[in-house]
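User: Hi! I'm working on a homework problem where we have to compare a predicted structure to a textbook description. Could you give me the structure for the chain below?
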Amino acid sequence: MAQLPRPKTKRGAVWTIAGAIVAVGVIGFVVVYFFLFPTSSPKPFGLNTSTTASAPITASTSFTGDWKVAAGSLAGYRVREKLAFLPAQSDAVGRTSAITGTAGLTQSGHTVTVNTAAYTVDVSTLKSDESMRDQHIRTIGLQSDEFPTATFKLTKPVVLPASAFSGGVVTAPVTGVFTIHGTARQVTLPVQFQLSGAGIQAVGSLTFPWAEFGMTAPSVGGFVSVTGMATMEFDLRLAKG
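Assistant: Happy to help. Predicted structure tokens:
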């Protein structure tokens, strides 16, 4: 007579249930990690070399005069953060196009000099990929509810070499007073410039300890931890007039 299958033991049933719970947990983690909290962030700003090709500099091009912030300009922050239940850090990036300001340039032959520049960014309009993060920086860290603007004022002329006049990308040190969170500091940062018949593009970034500008890393206890360094980055497009 055929034997009936032996019933599972109580211990075996427990392990089966435990295995199912672990499997569900792993699947849930994958869903949260790849869909609710994707690790991809906007890349750092870079120069668009196709602009020069589509609008080359000609003999009649003159860079002398006043230049203002044009459409396409962006500024923002980049910080490293770690969510409590994720294994690795990722970049948190917030940006805004609410930028105003002007620059005064002169040209002698193929040498262009930036003599004056002053810009204001409305940091209360910064947006990231998480509305909760955007709400937190209004009251902690950047505290944009209390300090809604960041400014930069050039204090030393910037001389661009002749290679810039041919549409090449050049890097020059830029010195000025950067004010954020109500604290002003003189800084020098490398900025990439590119001139074209369509205008001027300037891209750069400044990394600093939060404490340097009287801020504390906007960590949320038990949920999000932010490293002790912050980066301000910008992509300025300037048009004459």
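For your comparison, note the following. Residues 37-240 form a domain with the Lipocalin fold (CATH 2.40.128.110). The radius of gyration is 26 Å. Good luck with the assignment!
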